[in-house]
Write a structure and sequence with these properties.
Rossmann fold, seven-stranded mixed β-sheet, 24% helix, binds adenosine-5'-triphosphate, binds magnesium ion
């Protein structure tokens, strides 16, 4: 299976890109982002197999739980359960992997439709959401940062750096995107 469909067109000042040289850099970015997020936010995590979506979600959930004074829980990939839920203090966190979902109607059955707006939702393979995708979600796309083309049917090799693009469909994330763009300053282009 290949890509995640076409991305919604971002407004020009609402996109930032960040180089993530290794898994620790992804975890550090997740820890930076965690205190800037809360209940009602949805992160749509795009990217090919093995691009780092679960790694990012795991680090984000751990950071939020630590900030709430909890011991971080184990965060398994939800590729078979489709959804795993967590709590970080008062905040409910939903982590979904919709790779195996073939009908956007199942989103409602999973309860995700209700979770958007009340929980912090992290969604892998969000193209499966179709029209159920929240319009004000923050989009993150993890991609291999290599000159040679990557075969989209094969998992991305572990050792390759990743490049993260972040964009938003609505103005409320404008400041956050600007802060990510500032983080990216000084990184190799
Ligand atoms: N910069 C990086 N950021 C994140 N992961 C990286 C990075 N570099 C290498 N990796 C490795 O890539 C793998 C990413 O696996 P992960 O399960 O997070 O992918 P995924 O995008 O969730 O895939 P799937 O679509 O199958 O769910 C991990 O083994 C991780 O260590
Ligand atoms: Mg995953």
């Amino acid at each position: 299976m290949t890509g995640t469909g076409s991305d919604p067109a971002p407004v020009p000042d609402r996109r930032a890109t960040l180089l993530l040289p290794d898994p620790d850099a992804t975890a550090a970015f997740a820890a930076w982002l965690a205190p800037r997020l809360g209940a009602g936010d949805t992160l749509l995590l795009h990217g090919d197999l093995g691009s780092g979506k679960t790694h990012f979600a795991r680090a984000l959930i751990g950071a939020m739980q630590r900030a709430a004074g909890q011991l971080p829980e184990e965060v398994p990939s939800p590729s078979f359960t489709l959804v795993q839920t967590y709590a970080a203090g008062e905040t409910e966190i939903w982590h979904a992997d919709l790779y195996r979902l073939h009908d956007a109607g199942e989103v409602v059955e999973l309860g995700l439709g209700d979770a958007f707006g009340s929980a912090l939702c992290l969604v892998e393979w969000p193209d499966r959401l179709g029209d159920e995708a929240p319009p004000d979600a923050l989009h993150l796309r993890f991609a291999i940062d290599a000159v040679s083309p990557h075969n989209p049917d094969a998992p991305i090799p572990d050792a390759e750096p990743r490049r993260l693009s972040v964009w938003a469909g609505a103005p409320r994330h404008r400041q956050l995107i600007a802060a990510i763009a500032a983080l990216a300053q000084g990184q190799p282009g």
